[in-house]
Amino acid sequence: MFQPVRLLYISLVALLLAGCTATPSGGTTAVSTLTVMTHDSFAISAELVTQFEQAHHARLVFVPSGDTGAALNRAILSKEAPQADVFYGVDNTFLARALEAGIFESYDSPLLADIPASFRLDPENGALPVDYGDVCINYDRAYFEDHKLPVPQTLSDLTKPEYAGLLVVENPATSSPGLAFLMATIANFSEERYLDFWVDLRENGVVVVNDWETAYYTNFSGSSGRGPQPLVVSYNSSPAAEYIFADPPVTEPPTASITGPLACYRQVEFVGILSGTSQRMLAEQFVDFMLSVPFQEDVPEQMFVFPVNSNAALPEPFTRFTPPVDQPALLDPGLVAENRDRWIQEWSQSVLR
Fold it and tell me: Residue 31 has what pLDDT?
């Protein structure tokens, strides 16, 4: 979730602390400014910002630029006169578009040796993986216990009559998790049959809203305790967030995720050095920083996604309450780029008519 006040604070800290840097002889050395364009959900601990700036005699300026699609559009439209040195936040549903636009310079970071090949989707290393998250169905544990109703285990289960009216999803035309869930249904049922699943889901009373916030905090009963739907499209990390932010504290979250084979769609987010940067060396250092263990271990509790560096440890709530997704649903980024708009249009005609 985006925290605009926090990101503004981080940027102000960067500006105030890095105006000049003391040298051992007592003088000062000039600092270089690195501008990082991000989507609006980017977050980082202020302490890490300070550490990077002091280590590299630099000033970091973060430029939040909307959701993933809007931020990528900005980077593409300004590629002849780049507004930043580094871009973070393009995911695998938009990756092919970014690569086709040629906005990144290749960089073979030495930290890639610590990242599994399954996350490295750009063979030219223009876009380097930073984190990943799994979009899954979350459920209200108390509802299913109280109603003595088995928790659905597959996407096909959601069309059964016992789950009529129990699921809320986000519109894929307006919501990133909504789009990811649409991709999951295509990966499960194929291009030829996924609309049949959605028609069955519509007839079974699926509720569609425009954004994740409405789905999770208004419709979903597991978060507010008052919503009408006990099933929601959210993230595998949402139960950990429920535990961390619970007030008063709880011993376990009120929600859990359905993580069976192909039940969750995996989103991988990337960072890249923007073509034309005048700060190539500093940009490389920042990319290395994002792939290093300190940043990777900061990621879960800042953005509630998972690190890609195999050496990064997860916070305890994540190890307890986010079971691994061993068989995520995935689609080739090129296939997504070629068909995304058509799939959304077909979905709209079948589900919203």
Answer: 87
